[in-house]
Design brief:
Helix content is 58%, strand content 15%. It has one domain (9-107): Arc Repressor Mutant, subunit A (Orthogonal Bundle), CATH 1.10.10. It has helices at 5-28, 36-46, 53-65, 89-114, and strands at 34-35, 69-76, 79-87. It is an alpha+beta fold and 127 residues long. Helix 2 (36-46) crosses helix 3. 11% of the residues are buried. Strands 1-3-2 form a three-stranded antiparallel sheet. This is PadR family transcriptional regulator. It comes from Streptomyces polyasparticus. Pfam families: PadR. Residues 25-97 form the Transcription regulator PadR N-terminal domain.
Length: 127
């Protein structure tokens, strides 16, 4: 590994995470409401989507402002009450749209990453 490679990899992973985190959080709420720490743990468990409270809680606030999620407070048996986040109809629609678009987007990126792109025949420039 060359010097700086780990920094470049971290930067690339952070950019990818920023692009999909919102929809992954919405997907985690698809089947049931979740509270913040539970969302953080699920993201952490994925490995590639691990992030911090300083990222997730502002995202949840924005999702609430944008009417993609609603919140309710529920008592906890192991501490203070918890704020649970649940999808709204708008949130469910946004997730369904992302789910529809994602395979084509993923396949297009995979094609660029795995298929050789020879020089353009008329100019010699890369295609």
């Amino acid at each position: 590994m060359e010097p700086g490679d780990s920094t470049k990899q971290a930067r690339a992973a952070a950019q990818l995470r920023k692009g999909v985190l919102e929809y992954c959080v919405l997907a985690l709420m698809r089947d049931r409401p979740r509270y913040g720490v539970e969302l953080l743990q699920a993201l952490e468990d994925s490995g590639a989507l691990a992030t911090s409270q300083g990222t997730v809680y502002p995202l949840l606030s924005r999702l609430r402002r944008d009417d993609l999620v609603t919140t309710t407070w529920q008592e906890s048996t192991s501490g203070p009450p918890r704020r649970y986040y649940a999808l709204t109809e708008s949130g469910r629609a946004a997730l369904e749209e992302f789910t529809r678009v994602w395979p084509g987007f993923r396949d297009a990126v995979d094609t660029f990453l795995t298929t050789p792109h020879p020089a353009h025949p008329s100019t010699g420039d890369p295609a």
